[in-house]
Design brief:
It is a single chain. With 241 residues, the protein is an alpha/beta fold. The chain has 6 helices and 12 strands. The protein has helices at residues 46-54, 78-85, 93-99, 119-128, 198-209, 228-237; strands at 2-4, 7-9, 26-28, 34-37, 62-66, 89-91, 141-142, 148-149, 152-156, 165-169, 174-178, 215-218. Strands 1-2-3-4-5-6-7 form a 7-stranded mixed beta sheet. A 5-stranded mixed beta sheet has the order 8-9-10-11-12, with no helix packed on it. Strand 3 (26-28) and strand 4 form a beta hairpin. The longest helix is centred in the C-terminal third of the chain and has 12 residues, at 198-209. The mean pLDDT is 91. Bound molecules: zinc ion (2 copies). One zinc ion is lined by residues 23, 71, 73-74, 179, 219-220.
Length: 241
C-alpha cells in the first residue's frame, strides 16, 4: 500500500498477529535507489521481495537497508535481503552487535499489563525464543543523529532501546518511527513492557511531535496517512516524564 508518493507500507492488512505483532516495514523509491526500513519477521523475506517485484523492480534495485532497532520482529528477512541485493545494512552502534548475533536482545517485562493484546505475542515469543532467532547479518554502516541516507534523515530516538532510530523524509513530510511510536494495539510510544527507558521514550516522542509530519509509518499497527503531527502532539501532551 502506498502511504505517500513513492513510499510503500509492505505489510498486508492484518498480517502477523503471532509473527511480530502486526509489524510493519517500508520501502521508499528515491534517486538513491530503493531504501528499505526494517525487514518484517519472516526469514525468507518473501513479502518484501514480492512487493519489490510488484513495483517492477528487482532485488538488485534495493540499495539501502536501514534498521530502526535490533528487535526480532524487525530483522526477519534481513540476511536474505542482504544476500540477494548486496545492499549495505545501516543501524545504530548500540544495536549492531544484536543484529550480528553477538549479543541477545533484552528480555521484555510482563508488567505493566497495559496493551493486553500484546501478551500472547510476548508469551509465545518468549517460549519460542530459542527457536526463532533472526539469522544474523553484519551491519555495514553505523549511523546516528544527523546522518543522511539519500533523502532520509536519521533521528536518534532512544527509549524503547538505547540505539533506536527514526527516519524522516522531509520532502514527503513522512516519518518512520519504528517502535518509538506505534498504533497497535493502542496508540502509544512503544509497547510499555518492551520499553527500556521510559523517560527517554517520552523525550523522543516530544521531539517527533515537534516535527512537520503528515504521514507516519509505525513499527506495529497501521500507518497514519494524514495529519500525523496532531496525533503525535496529542500523545506527547499526555506524557508525564
Ligand atoms: Zn522493538
Ligand atoms: Zn517492534
Amino acid at each position: 500500500m502506498q502511504i505517500a508518493p513513492g513510499v510503500y507500507d509492505l505489510t498486508p492488512p492484518q498480517r502477523g498477529y503471532f509473527k511480530g505483532g502486526y509489524v510493519h516495514a517500508f520501502l521508499i523509491e528515491s534517486d538513491a535507489g530503493l531504501i528499505l526500513i526494517d525487514t518484517l519477521f519472516d526469514a525468507d523475506a518473501r513479502i518484501i521481495l514480492d512487493q519489490i517485484q510488484h513495483l517492477g523492480k528487482t532485488p538488485q534495485d534495493l540499495k539501502h537497508i536501514v534498521l530502526t532497532h535490533g528487535h526480532r520482529a524487525h530483522l526477519g528477512g534481513l540476511a536474505t535481503l542482504k544476500r540477494l541485493s548486496g545492499a549495505p545494512i545501516y543501524a545504530h552502534e548500540w544495536e549492531a552487535d544484536i543484529v550480528s548475533g553477538d549479543r541477545p536482545q533484552q528480555g521484555v517485562n510482563l508488567r505493566p499489563m497495559k496493551g493486553i493484546q500484546v501478551y500472547p505475542i510476548v508469551l509465545i515469543g518468549t517460549l519460542l525464543e530459542p527457536f526463532t532467532h533472526h539469522k544474523p547479518a553484519t551491519v555495514d554502516k553505523l549511523i546516528d543523529e544527523g546522518d543522511t541516507i539519500g533523502p532520509l534523515r536519521v533521528l536518534h530516538t532512544p527509549g524503547h532501546t538505547p540505539g533506536h532510530l527514526a527516519f524522516y523524509l522531509p520532502e514527503r513530510k513522512t516519518v518512520f518511527t519504528g517502535d518509538a511510536f506505534v498504533t497497535w494495539p493502542l496508540i502509544c510510544p512503544g509497547w510499555p513492557n518492551a520499553m527500556l527507558n521510559e523517560k527517554q521514550t517520552w523525550t523522543s516522542l516530544r521531539r517527533l511531535a515537534a516535527m512537520e509530519v503528515d504521514v507516519i509509518g509505525v513499527g506495529h499497527g497501521n500507518p497514519i496517512t494524514q495529519n500525523g503531527a496532531a496525533v503525535l502532539r496529542e500523545l506527547a501532551a499526555r506524557g508525564k516524564l
